[in-house]
Amino acid sequence: NNRVERVWQEVNARVGFPIKVAFVEMEDNSMLNRLDLTHLFATSTVGCSVARVLYQRFIDGWNNRSVPSKREG
Fold first, then answer.
1. According to DSSP H, which parts of 1-73 are helical?
2. Which ranges carry the Integrase core domain (predicted)?
């Protein structure tokens, strides 16, 4: 599970954390009210769209990374 856990930590760092920071900053600046259902719907819709883009970028980067070859010697 260590490899999977490292991947999910990376996903969280590249996808979840930036979105959370943005929403917390919006709330701190009184741009987002968690008690307003319209705000919740809008942030959910935008957040899911942004997460989808960030996650796809992560997948593309992961699939195109260089993997060091194991050499026996």
1. 2-11, 17-28, 37-63
2. 1-68
Q: Which residue has the tokens 């987002």?
A: 32
Identify whether the C-beta of residue 33 lies closer than 8 Å to the C-beta of residue 39: yes
**Axis crossing angle, helix 17-28 with helix 37-63, rounded to the nearest 10:** 150
User: What region does 27 belong to: left with phi over 0, alpha with psi -120 to 50, or beta?
Assistant: alpha
Each residue's pLDDT, cut to its tens digit, for the chain (73 residues) gives: 687 888 899 999 999 999 999 999 999 999 999 999 999 999 999 999 999 999 999 999 988 888 777 766 5
